[in-house]
Amino acid sequence: MQPVIIYIHGFNSSPQSFKAVQVKSYLDTHRPDIIFECHQMPAYPQQAWQFIESIVARHQGANIGFIGSSLGGFLSTKACEHFHCRAVLINPAVKPYELLVEYLGVNTNPYTQQSYVLTEQHITELRQLDVAHISRPSDIWALLQTADEVLDYRQAELKYQACRLTIEPGGDHSFVGFERHISDIVQFLAL
């Protein structure tokens, strides 16, 4: 069976995000044997999780690895625990249920122009998806940049301290220079 990388984008992002496009381009050129799954994620947490489960179900028995950015990193942590696979997290959100409270109400995804309403129920769903204890830290690699303007990198540094950690000074939430790590990411995912 062909190996699979599932890329999970962040909040209000899309498969057209720069990092997702860079990963696809790298795989097309260097690893065309890897199936790349990168889809528009549902805006609501429980629906997003069910969508991830459906993608994994389509690849039953395959070697699967996750790459998750921001909120996608939060969901990839859950996927890593649930499906016993590896995950690479890029500036992952650690407590999105605290951050997204300020987005309660109507939001519009700047990529898709889709409008949706975030409610307290969705904040509860995020809390339910949280992984309190990482049981296999060797299966996670977190890449953080200290000048992330959206998330405090120290939260992720603490949560993923037992995991493989790359902390770069400066940068921003998009993770400047991400393309430098793609080949190592694919290798880490053991695909």
UniProtKB/TrEMBL annotation:
InterPro entries, sorted: AB_hydrolase_fold, UPF0227/Esterase_YqiA
PANTHER family for this protein: ESTERASE YQIA (PTHR35602:SF3), ESTERASE YQIA-RELATED (PTHR35602)
Protein name according to UniProt: Esterase YqiA
Organism: Motilimonas pumila
Gene this chain is encoded by: yqiA
